[in-house]
Every structure is written in C-alpha cells, then in structure tokens.
C-alpha cells in the first residue's frame, strides 16, 4: 500500500521538542512517504537532536520568521535538499508574558505587535518565502486554536489566532489561481512547550477530554499530526481558506 504523502516534499516549521505538533506531523508525514525538511528557530543543535528521533533524520534549516535575511534565503536553502515543495507547515506561535493569562487590557502594543508578527503575519512571510518552490496542487497548512470565541488565559494569543485565520483566507484568495491551497488545522489543547507557557491553560486541558464527544488526550499530538497530513495530501483538492477542526468535537457543543 502506498502512503498518503508518497513522493511529496514537505517543509515543516516549529519543531522544538518531541511533543511539538510539528514533530508529530513530520513523523506521520515520513511514515506516509513524504520527504521532510525542517526549519528550526534559535536552538538549532536541540532541533537537530529532535530531528534525529524521526523515522528518517530530517535536515534542519535555521529560520526566525521575523528575520528578513533568513526568509529571503529560505527557498535557496530548501532547494539544497529538494527540487520543489508540495507542502509547507506553519506551526509557529509566540506571545510575550504580558499577553497571556495576565491583565488583558494592560498588555503594551510592543508586546502585542510581537505576538501578531510571530504568530499571524508570519504565515504570510513564510508562504511568500516558499512561493518560488510551490507548484500547482501544493498545500500550505497553519496551526490554529479556534479564535471565533474568547478563552480563559489565551488573551492576545487568541487575537493573534483570529488574525491568523483571516490571513489564511486572504492567502487562499491570492494563491487559489496558482493552484495553491491554504488552510488551518484548529486543534484541541496539546501539552507542548508553547501550551505550558500559558498560565491557566491547564483549566482548558482538564475539561476538554470530558466535554469533547470523541474524548481528547492532551498528551497525544498524533491525531493533530494526522489531520495536518491529510490536508497536505491530494485528498482535499478543493478545500482552501478553511479551518479544519481537530478537537474531539468540542467546538460543536454549546454546553
Ligand atoms: N499546544 C496546543 O494546545 C495548541 C493548540 C492549537 C494550536 N496550537 C498551535 O500549534 C503551533 C505549534 O505549537 P506547539 O503547541 O506544537 O508548541 P511548540 O512550543 O512545540 O512549538 C512552537 C514553535 O514556535 C517556534 N517559534 C517561536 N518563535 C519563532 C520565530 N520567531 N520563528 C520561527 N519559529 C518560532 C518555536 O521554536 C517552536 O518550535 C502554534 O501555532 C500553536 O499556537 C497549539
């Protein structure tokens, strides 16, 4: 049986530990036949070590999504490993302390703008940087936490996710005529480094599994990785500008 992503060349950002959603996406992608190239932010030696835990060790390119020079060189760096891209995964989020579980109204613009740049605008920066390598039928996927409602503690990260949702729709509009799809996967809470840095997020983690009709395990990022790989595959060929929910069905309930 051939894999879902057989022969696909996929660039995956956002691996920092082996609980990262990006790590599990890379693992499932390789198991399904993809050739994976990773990008890492800052702690390259650590990311390389984690990359070594994948079924096939993946090369790691340095990328800070706020660094214009690194963005400008990204396509050339990727082209050293693969001759084009069929998919790009944006699995990046960051907000300064003042933006999470603190006094929402007191967060200074400097911090908020930092959160917006890294967590939302960067979907545009990354997609633009990869565009020379993206052909007809390729798929860009970003990671979302349902921003249609307000959550405890998520604060300005929620605002950044709302901006990410809108950015994905505008990118879908721009890139549809080139045959490039742009979608988000909206996941339930997963215990990763980013999630642990949100004070009060545990409140959500504790109740999610009880409320979600299909149940939910915050220690298991694999269902999210599988969903991202499905969106990267050829099996959602007319889906773009969409938010694909992978949350055990939590979003469907009012109470
Ligand atoms: N964990 C959850 O509960 C959850 C739920 C829904 C969506 N998400 C989203 O999934 C994505 C991945 O997060 P995760 O939970 O796997 O946590 P994680 O901590 O494993 O990953 C976050 C990644 O963002 C990267 N990053 C931060 N600043 C960067 C920069 N300037 N340039 C490039 N990379 C940068 C980090 O290096 C890290 O690899 C994020 O967008 C997050 O908001 C997470």
Automatic annotation (TrEMBL):
Keywords annotated in UniProt: Fatty acid biosynthesis, Fatty acid metabolism, Lipid biosynthesis, Lipid metabolism, NAD, Oxidoreductase
Record-listed substrate binding positions: 95
Any matching Pfam family: adh_short_C2
GO biological process: fatty acid biosynthetic process
Claim: Calcium is one of the keywords in the record: no
EC number(s) from the headed UniProt entry: 1.3.1.9
InterPro entries per the UniProt record, alphabetical: Enoyl-ACP_Rdtase_NADH (IPR014358), NAD(P)-bd_dom_sf (IPR036291), SDR_fam (IPR002347)
Pathway assignment: Lipid metabolism
Keyword Lipid biosynthesis: yes
Protein name (record): Enoyl-[acyl-carrier-protein] reductase [NADH]
